[in-house]
Each structure stands twice: as structure tokens, then as C-alpha cells.
Amino acid sequence: PERVLLTRGDAVRLKATGLYEDRTTEDLTAAVTWATTDGNIAQILDGLDQEGQVIGNGVGEVVIFAELLGV
User: Fold this and answer.
1) Quick check: pTM over 0.90?
2) What is the pLDDT of residues 11-64, one digit of tens each?
């Protein structure tokens, strides 16, 4: 999703999908590095079977990034 609204304690699992030149796709959720612009507002969980899971911590707006090999 492009935009997700969470209240404190709510969680959502994001998915990273790779799109290749031949138009095939691949789920890259477990392969990417997830990051947030403000961990006080949204925390990214980093544990077994938690890839892409974000929890609302506070009030505000953040951007969540998924990066693979510098892209």
C-alpha cells in the first residue's frame, strides 16, 4: 500500500515485490532491508517471521523504505 494509518500498538505487514524486465515478479519481503524515518512513530520489527511488520508507536507521519542491494 502507498499509505497506511495505524494507531499506537496496531501492526501491519508490508510486502516488497520485485518487478523484472520480463514482467515477472518476486516476493522480496524477507530479502530487503526495512527502514523508517522515525522509529518513535513507527517501529519495524526485525525478527524471525517478522519481515515487513510495522507497529505504530506514536503520533505523526513516517516513510517506510525497503532497500535491496542499494536500490
Assistant:
1) no
2) 999 999 999 999 999 999 999 999 999 999 999 998 888 999 999 999 999 999
Estimate the share of the chain in helix, then strand, then coil, as percent rounded to the nearest 5.
0, 35, 65
Q: Identify the DSSP state of 45.
A: P
In contact, 53 and 11? CB cutoff 8 Å: yes
- The total of other beta-carbon atoms located within 10 Å of residue 49's CB is 7
- CA distances 41 to 6, 10, 24, 27, 28, Å, are 10, 12, 34, 26, 25
Exposed, middle or buried: residue 60 (CB in 10 Å: 0-12, 13-18, 19+)? exposed
Q: For residue 12, list its beta bridge partners.
A: 54
What's the rounded Cα separation, in Å, for the pair 68 and 51? 13
